[in-house]
Design a protein that fits this description.
single chain; 144 residues; Rossmann fold; 5-stranded parallel β-sheet; 6 helices; 48% helix; disordered N terminus
């Protein structure tokens, strides 16, 4: 069933031959989340690099720059807010998608804070793979 959903999401978001392969960096401490996102992105023709926390993700971005980065907010070692600030400072043209299962800081949601820090798209977990692929596609179109 997952393969069918992934194929449908791929065909919906990207017509055959309508894009070029790009590198996407996924930063999330949950290996299962990274695996599902990687499979969907690879089926859509992207190269995928994975990191389990923001510190490792920043190091990968320095050595294997990605055009779009998908980052979780709540992670051990280095959380998503610090990661987004560093990415925005050091890689201002890179697309950033923040994702979170919820939560608040003061009166703001975690995703609203992520947007203020520089994430161009946000996804509330759980989200559909089509939503994630659409967000990636939109950010890639903005870069061209």
């Amino acid at each position: 069933m997952l393969a069918i959903v992934l194929c449908l999401a791929e065909h919906y978001a990207y017509g055959e031959g309508s894009y070029t392969m790009t590198r996407i960096l996924i930063i999330d401490d949950n290996a299962s989340t990274r695996d599902v996102l990687r499979q969907a992105l690879e089926r859509a023709g992207h190269e995928v690099v994975e990191a389990a926390d923001g510190h490792v993700g920043i190091e990968y971005q320095r050595t294997l720059p990605a055009e779009v980065i998908i980052t979780d907010i709540l992670m051990p070692e280095q959380e998503g807010f610090k990661t987004i600030r560093e990415l925005r400072r050091d890689f201002p043209t890179t697309g950033i998608i923040a994702m979170s299962g919820g939560g608040q800081i003061g009166g703001d949601t975690l995703l609203a804070v992520a947007e203020r820090l520089g994430a161009q798209r946000v996804l509330q977990k759980p989200f559909g793979l089509r939503d994630m692929l659409d967000a990636v596609h939109q950010l890639l179109q903005r870069q061209t």
